Amino acid sequence: MTHHKQHTIGQSVWCSGVGLHSGLKVSLVLKPAPADHGIRFRRTDLPGNPTICAHYDNVIDTFQATTIGSAGIGVSTVEHLMAALYGCGVDNALVELNGPEAPIFDGSAAPYVKLIRKAAIVEQTGARRYLTIRRPFVVEEGDSSIIATPADQFQVHYEIEFPHPRVGKQEYSWELTNTSFSREIAKARTFGFLKDVQRLQQMGLIRGGSLSNAVVFDENEVLNVNGFRYSDECVRHKILDFIGDLALTGLPVLGKFEIRKAGHTLHSRFLAELMAGKGYAAQTPVAASAPYIPSGLYAIA
Ligand SMILES: [Zn+2]
Asked: H-helix or E-strand containing 81?
């Protein structure tokens, strides 16, 4: 596989599962798509089968999950599938689903990685364009922050802190390579605290939530019988979520991202402000020394 060509999947693949928040069973078909198509979702259960581009402009909700859509037509909890596609290097795919929310499976991206591998990843003729960070860029809110700086690779450093004896302070540094997503990040599950469950359910959320699709903590312990998959599973999952949200740029990204105590809402704000360029976005050619970069790419200053 070369880095400078776009990629799609080799064949259509099907799966089904329950949505974390809706609790609804949904069927999902991942289909190949042509170069420059990007990732798009199609609601096959709605009249006219409306299609939604997986693009930061289409984010309509970021509470507890990332929802994309418009005019009352949406797809929620897209971040784990988006992270899997991004982590596997899939630029173009059509995601057909017959419900409002992507399946949660085990709360991680591993089942989606397995699905993508089953479909196989194939190279296309179109050149890949990268979004490159050209200058330091910061978004902050309270003690949460995201700092982007230029780098020749895609690197993420995430730090979290929860006042819980099994979580506490965790940090993890990760860099995208051919295998690093599936090896280090994909298996990390979403997590939550028992004290929040009732409140979220009263809000109509996590109706499909259970110990089979999340790590759940009571006041002192992990309630899942088998405990963690990694001792720092929580921070790894935050990286998974960030990758899924950043994938909504629609382009592979070259840059280093240092994130502290953020979530979907700050990820999304960061993305919108980054792409708006804060008045200094520019399309410029990238340094010839940077690896994997074809000509004609989109760069943001
Ligand atoms: Zn997540």
From this structure: helix 79-87
Instruction: Based on the residue annotation, tell me whether 80 is a catalytic residue of this protein.
Output: no
* Burial letters 67-89, b for 16+ CB under 10 A, else e: bbbeeebbbbbbbbbbbbbbbbb
Residue 47 domain boundaries: 5-127
Interhelix angle 79-87/233-246, nearest 10 degrees: 80
Candidate list 7, 21, 80, 264, residue with the active-site label:
264
Q: How far is CA 53 from the centre of its chain?
A: 14
- In the predicted model, is pLDDT for residue 291 greater than 90? no
Q: How remote is the CA of residue 10 from the centroid of ligand 1, in Å? A: 27
% of the chain with per-residue pLDDT over 90: 68
pTM for the complete prediction? 0.90
Centre of ligand 1 to C-alpha 143, Å, is: 21
pLDDT of residue 72: 77
Tell me how far the alpha carbon of residue 128 lies from the centroid of ligand 1, in angstroms. 27
- The full DSSP string for 103-146 is B-TTSSSHHHHHHHHHH-EEEEEEEP--EEE-S-EEEEETTEEE
pLDDT tier, 236 (very low <50, low <70, confident <90, very high otherwise):
very high
Do 102 and 227 sit in the same domain of this protein?
Answer: no
pLDDT at 52 over 60: yes
| Ligand 1 centroid to residue 80 C-alpha, Å | 6
- Report pLDDT digits (tens) over 195-229: 888 888 888 888 888 899 999 999 999 999 999 99
Which of 89, 104, 127 is at the close of a domain? 127
